[in-house]
TrEMBL record:
It comes from the Bacteria. This is Probable membrane transporter protein. The chain crosses the membrane at residues 44-62, 74-94, 100-118, 130-149, 161-180, 192-211, 231-249. Belongs to the 4-toluene sulfonate uptake permease (TSUP) (TC 2.A.102) family. It is found in: Cell membrane. GO terms for cellular component: plasma membrane. It comes from Pedobacter soli. It is a multi-pass membrane protein. PANTHER family: MEMBRANE TRANSPORTER PROTEIN YFCA-RELATED (PTHR30269:SF0), TRANSMEMBRANE PROTEIN YFCA (PTHR30269).
Length: 256
């Protein structure tokens, strides 16, 4: 158990660091726990990762909140719908074959990477392209979609939320990251409520991982706020490309 715990805590630190900047820390943390603890049910391992995820995300959200002005109507619409959708996703996680969804995610990520790379001003400046009512409606719709995905699978949720806040709602990278963290807290909380009520959390691993995830989030948030939007854009691209490679490898390896 000691070796497994050390490996998981190391991964949790890196995941917290990445997640605080651009989201997507789960893309490192989730495959790692599936590999390191192969004898446990998938639902149990996914539930366990939610504890460190919500710890790091909460710290990052707190630090962002001190320097970012939140759009509370948009935030509430997205967070509330995402919460209930994540509950449904967590309920269904043991009833749907995740391998069916992986190829779809890979295609989406390729599109995200190309769009971000080709559009040099993407997320650099805040753009208000919609009326408030339309922003709230869109936030609620995408909250449902991404919240359901987070409860069902999880990895990459932060990156998808950031993409929506930028491409759909017109935020810059820093603002998008801040809002995404709050929504991600809601989805993680929903999943934790379900997984803990059904005994699907290994607290002996989850608590130490949470401490290391917090540490990573502290340094990641500090770096993001120090370096600004251009740095976060580059980091976002790196994480998305890494995610594409990871999903492509999984799909080719398993033949799904």
């Amino acid at each position: 158990m000691a070796t497994e715990l050390i490996l998981l805590c190391t991964v949790a630190f890196a995941a917290g660091f990445i997640d605080a900047i651009v989201g997507g820390g789960g893309l490192l943390q989730t495959p790692a726990i599936l590999l390191i603890l192969p004898n446990y049910p998938v639902a149990t391992l996914l539930g366990t990762t939610k504890i460190p995820s919500i710890a790091g995300t909460t710290l990052a959200a707190f630090k962002y909140a001190r320097q970012v002005k939140f759009n509370y109507r948009v935030l509430a619409a997205c967070a509330v719908t995402a919460f209930f959708a994540a509950l449904l996703g967590a309920y269904l996680v043991s009833r749907i074959d995740n391998s069916v969804i992986k190829p779809i995610i890979l295609v989406v990520l390729v599109f995200v990477a190309l769009y971000t790379y080709l559009n040099k001003q993407f997320g650099i400046h805040q753009e208000k392209t919609y009326a408030v009512v339309k922003q709230v409606l869109l936030a609620g719709i995408f909250g449902l979609i991404i919240g359901f995905y987070d409860g069902l699978i999880g990895p990459g949720t932060g990156s998808f939320l950031i993409l929506v806040f930028i491409a759909v709602l017109g935020f810059d990278f820093i603002g998008a990251s801040a809002h995404a963290k709050i929504v991600n807290i809601a989805t993680n909380l929903a999943a934790i409520l379900y997984f803990s009520s059904t005994g699907h959390i290994l607290f002996q691993y989850a608590i130490p991982m949470a401490i290391f995830n917090l540490s990573g989030a502290f340094f990641g948030t500090k770096l993001a706020l120090l370096k600004g939007n251009k740095f976060v854009r580059v980091f976002f691209l790196i994480v998305v490309f890494g995610t594409i490679l990871r999903f492509a490898y999984d799909i080719l390896k398993t033949g799904v």
